[in-house]
Amino acid sequence: MSSSTIHRINLENPLTDTSSTSQTELPFTFQDVKAAIPSACFSPNVWRSLAYFFADTAIIVGLYATAMYLDAWWFYPIFWFATGTMFWAFFVVGHDCGHGSFSRSKWLNNLIGHLTHIPILVPYHGWRISHRTHHQNTGNIDTDESWYPVTKSQYQEMDWVGKFIRFDALLFAYPLYLFKRSPARPTASHFVPNNDLFRASETNDILTSSILWTAMIVFLGWLGFTYGFLFLFKFYIVPYLIFVIWLDLVTYLHHTEADIPWYRGKDWYFLKGALSTIDRDYGIFNNIHHNIGTHVAHHIFIGIPHYHLKTATDAIKPVLGKYYRVSNEPIWKSFFTSQKSCIFVPDAGGEVYYVPSSEVIK
What we know:
By secondary structure, this protein is mainly α. It has one domain. The protein is 53% helix and 3% strand. The chain is built from 15 helices and six strands. It has helices spanning 30-35, 46-70, 76-99, 106-117, 124-136, 152-157, 160-168, 174-180, 203-227, 229-255, 270-274, 285-288, 295-300, 309-320, 331-341; strands at 150-151, 262-263, 279-280, 326-327, 344-345, 351-352. The strands form three sheets. It has a two-stranded parallel ribbon with strand order 1-5. It has a two-stranded antiparallel sheet with strand order 2-6. The chain has a two-stranded parallel sheet with strand order 3-4. Helix 9 (203-227) runs antiparallel to helix 10 (229-255). The chain is globular, with a radius of gyration of 20 Å. The protein starts with 29 loop residues before the first helix and ends in a 10-residue tail after the last strand.
């Protein structure tokens, strides 16, 4: 399979994806898994979805009002962490919009998607579409879009800057990814139409999000110019960086674990690839960031709203059996373990696993 071939599975209708029903390598089919889930889980409740959006908005506004009223340095670290975390929760609401699981209304999804993404410098349509590619190709070394592994030869060809960003500064990699994506896919930007991320019919969407994103940058520049850099640093830059850490941490841990397989060519198909992810327990943050850690069910059925994912997960566990992966160890322990044990995968093989740092040839 050519690395330029992107699998375009029918995820436009998230309730009727039967892409893997013809494959029988697994002891169950897509329809077997779907049948185990209560039908109500597939139906978004627009008022409930909006309630999460308005609740997150109110919390963020409250944090800003409190920080401005107190204007005390002892409070700023609390404000930074809490606001950055709520930016991440905001992102998760917009993430549902991108999947069509916020509501069945396209215009409402696009409206809330922009309202939740643009303030945190995420180009809504650009991200939505690249994330669609990720879901269509999860677990496929050649065509996946999110935290896919580099091969041994790619690793050996990377310069020290590339290795530093990928393996040491990975929790700050997201802003660079928007412009250049990765060493293996260097040509596509989330802001410019007519590249291999987007279809020609999506040009207007990309331009809309890029214009709004640029307007947000201009607004932030105006804030800094008018009120000073320290104001911008206190009230936006630090919370934004906390959000970036959350985004990179969670997406990295969804797909990076030593025992998660990656596939090539005919060894990959949708359902098997969708199972190459893992559920994580974020403790007190599970509810704050809308149970995004319940990721296995989400990858199989993107049309399930976040508030139904726990019910869906409980329903599919008996069907998936050993193919369901979950980790309950502390998040930071999981991160440092994966960072050391997941460096690259072999250059050949239909089903491959990460090679740990102890085996890396410097």
